[in-house]
Write a structure and sequence with these properties.
Blueprint (H helix, E strand, L loop, with lengths): L15 E3 L2 E3 L6 E2 L4 H8 L15 E3 L3 E2 L6 E2 L4 E2 L3 E2 L6 E5 L3 E5 L4 E3 L1
Antiparallel strand pairs: 1-2, 2-3, 4-7, 4-11, 5-6, 8-9, 9-10
Length: 112
Amino acid sequence: MSDLPPCPQCGSTLSYEDGAMLVCPECAHEWSPAGVGANTEQSGVVDANGTPLVDGDAVTVIKDLKIKGSSQVVKVGTKVKNIRLVDGDHNIDCRIDGVGAMKLKSEFVKKA
């Protein structure tokens, strides 16, 4: 059996490594093996209200966001699950239902 920690979301012991992240095959939750607390201190990414964000959080969009090169708009109140924090100007990498993969700025979301 593996010595990887169980999933913090559902408790499954079937977790596996995918690059630098750990993944649960039962609930699809992804987390950093360093732990949630360590990731908060490293990233320094906060939402519009100043709440620290970590990988795997769910956020809500607080402003209509136009999508470059498209006529689509991400509406206020759209909930985005299982975000991934990345370096750069757009520091949230996510998938939005009906739109697809996107990068968002943390100043336009709040933690759900």
